[in-house]
Amino acid sequence: MAQHDYDIANGTGAAVRTDINNVLDAVVSQNSGGSAPSTTFSYQQWADTTAGLLKIRNGANNAWVTVGTLDAANLGLATLASPSLSGNPTAPTPASGDNDTSIATTAFVKTLVDSAVATAVGNLTDAMMPQGSVVQVLNFTENAIHDTTSAANVFGGLTGAITPSATSSKILVTMNVNVQTVQAFQNAMVGVTAYRGSGSSGATASGTNLAPAFSGVIGSNATLRNFATYDSETSSDAQVSIQYLDSPSSTSSVNYQVAFRKLTGAKARLGGRLAWSTMTLMEIKG
User: Fold this and answer.
1) How far lies 99's CA from each of 104, 234, 262, in Å?
2) Which architecture does CATH list for 134-284?
3) Across-strand partners of 278?
4) Counting beta carbons within 10 angstroms of the beta carbon of residue 198, is it exposed (0 to 12), middle (13 to 18) or buried (19 or more)?
5) Which end is more exposed in the chain, N or C (fewer Cβ atoms within 10 Å of the end residue's Cβ)?
6) Which of 61-75, 84-98, 168-182 has maximum average pLDDT?
């Protein structure tokens, strides 16, 4: 280890020779020492033996800049060919859309992926969606009471419309209809169904009945459980559920409506005291 002020003092031949040798020792040892040289110059190197680092003086000659680690291969620095990095190495982020041999940072990749996803989702059309996808869902409610003495289906008040995006689409019709068996009406059994069609409340139902003909006999082989009955001596409320996958084959507005009739007794009542009646229309891609 050697350091020098790099000033050869006047003296005898032996003294000057010794001073020159000390300068050369400082040069070949990179001014090594446990503390910084007392005399410094811009871009002077110093092997800091205390920290085990090779340092170089900055251009302003007012600070040391670490170059690398002493006694480490390549001063512990990454090689140009196939470097093995560790920790969390960073790099400049290329401009969006860059298409060359630049290193792609995580910021570049995330920006690119976010943009691609946003573009794909934004440009996704109904035609691109796979079969069985839900295209749209509409919900309708009604809370009025409707009575009928008709043994034929008449429209209730619950109705809803949907415009399919393609003629191949299916429409899943789901209804939860509140009914009431009224003691004053001889606790009439109420038959409930769904129609593809439209009409005013109380009018004879017309269009396509989405439920098969119902005989009114409890336990008959009907596709839909579209009836409610109570044997109690007091009025009772119930929810009747209807679900049907329809194929309207249309891209125009399609209307669906609940219909009901009396199966027994004097009068049937749609609606009641407990809950709202609801209808959900869901377009399924065919």
Assistant:
1) 10, 79, 73
2) Sandwich (2.60)
3) 141, 176
4) middle
5) N
6) 61-75
What is the tens place of the pLDDT at every residue in 202-259? Answer: 899 999 998 754 433 322 233 333 444 433 444 566 777 888 999 999 999 999 999 9
CA–CA distance, 276 with 158 (Å, rounded to integer): 10
Total count of residues recorded for the chain: 286
Residue-wise pLDDT for 8-32, tens only, equals 989 898 999 998 988 998 899 999 9
Phi-psi label, residue 265: left if phi above 0, alpha if psi -120 to 50, beta otherwise: left
Q: How far apart are CA 57 and CA 47, in angstroms?
A: 11
Looking up tokens 């969606």 gives 129
Q: Please give the Cα distance from 223 to 220 (Å, whole number).
A: 9
Structure tokens, 37? 């040289």
CA dist 122 and 166 (Å) reads 20
What residues does each domain of the chain span?
13-76, 134-284
Interatomic CA distance for residues 157 and 89, integer angstroms: 68
Strand residues in the chain grouped as ranges (E): 45-48, 53-57, 64-69, 134-142, 146-148, 154-162, 170-181, 190-196, 208-209, 227-228, 236-246, 254-262, 268-270, 277-284
- CA separation for the pair 25, 14 (Å, rounded): 16
Instruction: Label the pairing between strands 190-196 and 208-209.
Output: antiparallel
Structure tokens at 238: 């119930």
Do the Cβ atoms of 243 and 192 come closer than 8 Å? no
State the residue for tokens 């869902």.
Answer: 137
The CA distance from 166 to 31, in Å, is: 83
Tens of pLDDT, residue by residue over 208-221, are 998 754 433 322 23
Tell me if 235 sits within 8 A of 185, measured CB to CB. no
